[in-house]
Amino acid sequence: MSSRSSSALRLEIEHALERSFPAALTPAHRTIHETVATGIAEVDELLEGGLPAGAISEINGPESSGRTTLALSFLAQRTAAGQVCAWVDADDAFDPESAAANGINLRQLLWVRCRKSGIPIRQRPSTKPFAQLDQALRATDLLLQAGGFAAIVLDLGDTAVEHARRIPLATWFRFRQAADRARTCLVVVAQDGCAQSSAAVALECAALRPITAGDTVLRGFHFEVRRERQRFSPIVIGQKKPPARVWPAAGAWDMEQRA
Fold first, then answer.
1. b/e sequence 170-181, b meaning 16+ C-beta within 10 Å
2. Which of 18, 159, 207, 211 has a CB 3.0–4.6 Å from the CB of 219, allowing a cystine?
3. Given the DSSP bridges, would you call strands 217-230 and 35-36 parallel, antiparallel or unpaired?
4. What is the bridge-based pairing of β-strands 217-230 and 199-213?
5. Rounded to whole angstroms, how far apart are CA atoms 167 and 187?
């Protein structure tokens, strides 16, 4: 069959199917997905530009793995550009001084503290482990529906993994839809992944080695970040391990002294 007859046959099939299946044989145009820089060159290179706008991104890892430092760097970029952001603090663990030392403009940041009757989290009874988590989810829902926030960080870093994993999939799907409508970057900081398929990007953080001056002065850390999932990334055949990058981070105390 000649190429000309093949083209004619294709047009004939598309005309026959156009009411039910428009452009049935025509590949869809590639959509350009907007990304937002994190302010860490190694991470932005790994993500091919940064975190996706209007989507959920997960930053996971144990304590002192660099997950919070990465989230703070991301918000520092947004607030420096004059954009309004929010930090939903499920366990009342956010430190404004460290945030300011990492470059965040606190005037552009809404801090939502999830507390119970004004009692510090370390002194609260453990009778209702889901009370603060429920507050955090409700607050995140309200902020996404309200719109106007360039980025929202949902900090579940101190929330037990078994509790975070009990968040219904319907909640994450609703957050995903709301973030897309508002074009908000929703960043979830947790010990392990909990948004599952609703997350466009999932990063796994780990601490590697300290940065020292001499034998006794601690200046910062080297962290590793591994891309566990990226919805819009092309599939690389033969790739056995997820791509990763190593990046250095100075301690907040060191940055304060140099400022």
1. eebebbbebbbe
2. 211
3. unpaired
4. antiparallel
5. 16
Q: What share of the chain is helix, strand, coil (3-state, %, to 5)?
A: 35, 25, 40
pLDDT of residue 127: 43
**Is 51 found in the same domain as 26?**
no
- The number of domains in the chain is 2
* Structural domain harbouring 23: 1-30
CA distance linking residue 236 with residue 32, whole number of Å: 19
User: Is residue 50 within 8 Å of residue 254, measured between CB atoms?
Assistant: no
Per residue in 101-153, pLDDT tens? 999 999 999 999 997 655 554 554 444 667 899 999 999 999 999 999 999 99
Cα(112)–Cα(92) distance, integer angstroms: 9
Averaged pLDDT of the chain: 83
Strand 151-156 and strand 85-89: the pairing is parallel
Q: Which residue has the tokens 């300290």?
A: 210
Q: Which residue bears the tokens 């995903």?
A: 176
pTM for this structure?
0.78
Q: Is 11 found in the same domain as 134?
A: no
Measured CA to CA, the distance from residue 73 to residue 58 in angstroms comes to 15
Return the pLDDT at 12: 74
Same domain assignment for residues 50 and 6: no
The stretches of the chain forming alpha helices (DSSP H) are 3-17, 41-46, 67-80, 96-101, 131-146, 161-164, 169-182, 252-258
Helix (H, G, I), strand (E, B) or coil at 3: helix
Beta bridge partners of 109: 85
